Amino acid sequence: MTVQKSGPGFAVAAVLENGGWRCSELDPNALTDLDAAITELGKIVTTGAVVALLCVDDEFFVLIRLAPSGTELVLSDAAAALDYDIAADVLDMLRAEMPDEDDDETWAEGDLGMMSDLGLPSEELEMIASDIELYPDEQLRMIARRCGFGDQFDDLLDRL
Q1: What InterPro entries has UniProt attached to this entry (predicted)?
Q2: Residues 89-107 pLDDT 10s
Q3: Which residues contact 78 (CB under 8 A, 6 or more apart)?
Q4: pLDDT tens digits for 28-43?
Q5: From CA 23, how far away is CA 33, in angstroms rounded?
Q6: Which of helix, strand or coil describes residue 53?
Q7: Which residues contact residue 39 at a Cβ distance below 8 angstroms, ignoring those fewer than 6 apart?
Q8: 3-state DSSP call for residue 107?
Q9: What are phi and psi of 16, to 5 degrees?
Q10: How many whole angstroms separate alpha carbon 89 and alpha carbon 128?
Q11: How many CA atoms lie within 13 Å of 37's alpha carbon, on the beta-carbon side?
């Protein structure tokens, strides 16, 4: 069983509709409960892309995208599953193995190509997620910029 920590973080939905992006805050429960995050994302009615960007406790990020084929997920640091329920839930949904407690490595898990149609190839997303010199909010800002909603993302974070 993991220890549920809570602390600094944010949960944002980015919605592409009619060629433009808008960002809005998701319920804070999305930071601790994957089902809550997916439910919140599912409430957004649009014909375009919808992506949740979760920055959890300044430790890791989670990307969630609802697609016709199912829920697509990326966890920036699989080792976070040892300490955070939401990260463990992501690994469970991905059917990925839990990391070994003795493992000091960090690696991303999930569909790294989930943002490629939005301008962020899988290789670049993997590079961003694996950059241990960056905080998760900085990584998410890079992702937002690369996908074309950096200004909207920054404006929302400035208001939070």
Answers
A1: tRNA_Adeno_NH3ase_assoc_put (IPR023869)
A2: 999 999 999 888 877 778 9
A3: 87, 91, 96, 99, 106, 107, 108, 109
A4: 999 999 999 999 999 9
A5: 20
A6: strand
A7: none
A8: coil
A9: -100, 120
A10: 22
A11: 30
